[in-house]
Amino acid sequence: MLRQGQFLFKFRGLLPVAFLIIGLIIFFLQARHSAFFFTEDDQRTYDLACLCLALSGLIIRIITVGYSPKGTSGRNTATQVAHQLNTTGLYAVTRNPLYLGNFLLWLAVVLLCQHLGFTILFLLSFWWFYRLIIFTEETFLETEFGADYLTWKNNTPVFFPSLRKYQPSTRAFNWKKVLRKEKNGIAAIFGIFFLFQLSGAIAAPEKFHPVTFLADHLFWSVCALGSGLYYLLIKVISATTNWLENNSGTGRA
């Protein structure tokens, strides 16, 4: 399990990409044959409900990253990194808040397809994939932090949160870190939802016209454009200044 987990840890970013590609294909075919569960008006409400689910996952990620110290809760893939043991904030209610956020975010994307078999495949794949990754990470943390880690582990759920265990974070919220680290997620959510709208529209090429599509899907178009510009802005700021490199927040302000 350890070797499998180490391998999957390095490539954990590929699972969402694979399900995105498969999901877009399924959604296109569903739209081509009008095989959705909902009418057009209900479909818009359903899409917004999925967006809310995705944003709830993003919020969990933002809170987790914002209160985490430097050297933890990162996007590292080559090796395990943990300079400190996180036990407060969302880490007091679940040992894996970032993976919980990822789960809600990508479940929302999968649900857009309205395909029961694809949803079940995602749930099983996510469970298998992250079970091995979590095992690998916990083996590393037990080696690094010993008894302190075991005490926290034995009192904190592995995935589904127990809100009654919540303890406020002892750190200040680092919003600069959030702006820098979560730009990908913000842009990805709205970009992906826009892609699904576009996929559904081009499934009927005889009815598709770019200008009409953008007008009919103004909300998704503006959100995708805005999040894309935000991503580029943060990239430029990070490349040309050190304004977002403030990783302090060692205590409450």
Automatic annotation (TrEMBL):
Keyword check for Membrane: yes
Entry EC no(s): 2.1.1.100, 2.1.1.334
Pfam families the UniProt entry points to: PEMT
Superkingdom of the organism of origin: Bacteria
Signal peptide: none
Membrane topology: Multi-pass membrane protein
Keywords of the record: Membrane, Methyltransferase, Transferase, Transmembrane, Transmembrane helix
Membrane spanning stretches: 12-29, 103-130, 185-205, 217-234
Any one GO molecular-function label of the UniProt entry: protein C-terminal S-isoprenylcysteine carboxyl O-methyltransferase activity
First-tier enzyme category under EC: transferase
Subcellular localization: Endomembrane system
Keyword field contains Nucleus: no
Gene Ontology biological-process annotations: methylation
Xref: InterPro entries: Phopholipid_MeTrfase
Protein name (database record): Methyltransferase family protein
Organism whose genome encodes this protein: Marinoscillum luteum
Lineage: Bacteria, Pseudomonadati, Bacteroidota, Cytophagia, Cytophagales
